[in-house]
Amino acid sequence: MRDGQDSIRSKPPMRADARRNQQRILDAARAMFSEQGTAAPLDDIARRANVSIATLYRRFPDRAALCRHVAIEGYETVLAEARAAQEVAEEGGPDAPLRAVERFLTGAVDQRSRLVLPLFGGPAFHDEEVIVLRHRITGSLEAVLARGRERGAVRDDVNSIDLLMAAAIISRPLPNTPPEWLDTTARRHIAVHLDGLRPGAIHHLPGPEPEHAFSRETPAAARPGPAENAPTEHRA
């Protein structure tokens, strides 16, 4: 599975049984957050994971910690799909960037059960690990779009936030949609979106390009240090 690769987390390895318990808790949390929202009772999540509530609290001291971990796994999944799309965009042929976008959107649909957070809502997190993951995601998607513009395959008035919003919308079907329609409907919407990305559209997209709040965040490694911020001393 790619979604856990290249995590920026650096933690001591867990015992195999602890790792299994943690994954059961995360799987149960995703399922219950999808059904009931992030206010789902932690006791019910522990019961669904077939672990004690003490085990849940040992791994996640509070609801925010559990939500954050679910969100980070979601971001890692999106990052893996964005990087896979970036690889496709670098392939030969003028249509490679559009195939890359299709790869990203299709991947989001296929992985939707892992994207309850962040694509389906929930609390916002702004710590360094989350900021770095989000910048890596938008960086890969901007590279896909840049390659598309270079090859004349993608219109010039879309950005990575447009792609992320499309992935979120397409990945979350309307309530009561028959299960047998989910994949077909999603792929129809992906096809519509791909046609809309092609250059030569009759209408320019209205309004300014969308800007998500996290697009204004800067990872610590990219922030200027004290020396860069200090005023330059001028000597006579």
Task: Describe the overall structure.
The protein has 236 residues and is mostly helical. It has two domains: 17-61, Homeodomain-like (Arc Repressor Mutant, subunit A), CATH 1.10.10; 68-197, Tetracycline Repressor, domain 2. It contains nine helices and no strands. The longest helix is centred in the N-terminal third of the chain and has 27 residues, at 63-89. Mean pLDDT is 85; it is low at 1-8 and 227-236. One of its GO terms (molecular function) is transcription cis-regulatory region binding. Residues 41-60 bind DNA. Keywords: DNA-binding, Transcription, Transcription regulation.
According to CATH, the homologous superfamily of the largest domain is Tetracycline Repressor, domain 2
Evaluate the radius of gyration. 20 Å
User: CA-to-CA gap between the ends?
Assistant: 62 Å
CATH architecture of the largest domain: Orthogonal Bundle
Q: Give the DSSP E fraction (strand runs of 2 or more residues).
A: under 5%
- CATH topology annotation of the largest domain: Tetracycline Repressor, domain 2
Query: How many strand elements?
Result: 0
SSE topology string:
HHHHHHHHH
Describe the global form. globular
Number of helices: 9
Structural class based on helices, strands and sheet pairing: mainly alpha
Report the helical percentage.
55-70%
Largest sheet: none
Number of domains: 2
- The unreliable regions are 1-8, 227-236
Mean of all residue-level pLDDT scores: 85
Oligomeric form of this entry?
single chain
Query: For this structure, what is the CATH class of the largest domain?
Result: Mainly Alpha
